[in-house]
Design brief:
Blueprint lengths: L4 H12 L7 H12 L3 E5 L6 H10 L5 E5 L6 H5 E6 L4 E6 L6 E5 L6 H4 L3 H6 L1 E4 L2 E4 L5 E6 L12 H4 L2 E6 L5 H9 L16 H12 L5 H16 L3 E3 L3 H17 L7 H12 L4 E2 L1 H5 L4 H11 L8 H4 L1
Parallel strand pairs: 1-8, 1-9, 2-5, 5-8
Antiparallel strand pairs: 3-4, 6-7, 10-11
Helix pairs in contact: 1-2, 2-11, 9-11, 10-11, 10-12, 11-12
């Protein structure tokens, strides 16, 4: 019998939380991104466990993972791969770059130059890399988990909107509560290292879970609710650019995974509403006036979610 998304999520949570203390909601959102096969941006101040979370997630999955440390001298070819001339044969062979893995940890992504960051655009959207006009497919499932520090400006480059839009979700890790931080302090010398974790899901199991999530029922009314939310961000007076149609697709995909983790066979309006901040906030560009008034994308989404009534889909029996 195939492993259910709910059971797979429980196994992942138990494994990852051996390293990441006191962050069950962050681990849940990371699992949502994984099961939706969407990319995840972890953003917070240094020392909150962003890289440890990404490494723990990668180590919990059977398959290949790679870590790309973004620095100003990193080149696009280091990410995508390069053609190497073979003197003996007089031909060029392709040497794959760091993205040829199931889970790619893009550590401190905003330290890479814009040219280097742009090397991820194609592979994040299409799961292929084009080198010298030849396309190369990356392994599936494929997930980019990126980290960035939003408060440090020296030696960093702002992620462009086109790249932010390719992340399914942006999640802030946050500080642990008192008890969790005590456990972190006491376990600093003897705690579990992410590299010591053993996989709890192999690639066929993960692929089967992703397939189950994609088949989860979404009522047209619920899909319409997601589209209404994304569309309303474009019309809000504090917004210069709102969520694109890719944002609507991402919102439904994430809601599917969230419902599957709860062991339900359908997506509810609450699933959409609960996941909306993680999926849409980073896709919203505020007007200069709104930024001067210190408005935030989260406040805009609160306005939107408060103004749009939730639909009431028909029960399964009535649909039949």
């Amino acid at each position: 019998m195939p492993l259910s998304p709910a059971r797979a999520a429980a196994l992942l949570a138990e494994n990852v939380q051996r390293v990441i203390q006191g962050k069950p909601e962050v681990v849940r959102l990371a699992t949502v991104a994984l099961f939706a096969e969407g990319h995840l941006l972890l953003e917070d101040v240094p020392g909150t466990g962003k890289t440890s979370l990404a490494r723990s997630l990668a180590r919990s999955i059977g398959g290949r993972w790679s870590r790309i440390q973004f620095t100003p001298d990193l080149l696009p070819g280091d990410i995508t791969g390069v053609m190497i001339y073979q003197q003996g044969t007089g031909s060029f062979d392709f040497r794959p770059g760091g993205v040829f893995a199931n889970v790619v940890l893009a550590d401190e992504i905003n330290r890479g130059t814009p040219k280097t960051q742009s090397a991820l655009l194609e592979v994040m959207a299409e799961r292929i890399v084009t080198v010298d006009s030849v396309p190369y497919a990356v392994p599936r499932p494929f997930l980019v988990v990126a980290t960035q520090n939003p408060i440090e400006l020296d030696g960093t480059y702002r992620l462009p909107e086109a790249q932010l839009d390719r992340f399914l979700m942006r999640v802030g890790v946050g500080y642990p509560d008192h008890d969790a931080e005590v456990r972190v302090v006491l376990g600093a010398a003897t705690g579990v290292d992410p590299d010591a974790l053993t996989p709890v899901l192999d690639l066929p199991e993960l692929a089967a879970v992703i397939a189950q999530v994609r088949r989860l029922h979404v009522d047209p009314l619920v899909a319409g609710y997601a589209v209404q939310i994304a569309s309303a961000t474009r019309e809000h007076p504090a917004v210069r650019y709102g969520a694109s149609p890719r944002g609507s697709v991402a919102l439904v995909a994430a809601a599917r995974a969230a419902a599957a983790i709860e062991d339900r066979s359908f997506v509810s309006p609450d699933d959409v509403k609960t996941i909306a901040h993680a999926v849409l906030a980073h896709r919203i560009v505020l007007t200069p006036e709104a930024e001067l008034n210190r408005r935030t994308a989260a406040e805009v989404l609160d306005d939107v979610l408060g103004a749009i009534p939730q639909p009431t889909p028909q029960p399964a029996a009535a649909r039949a």
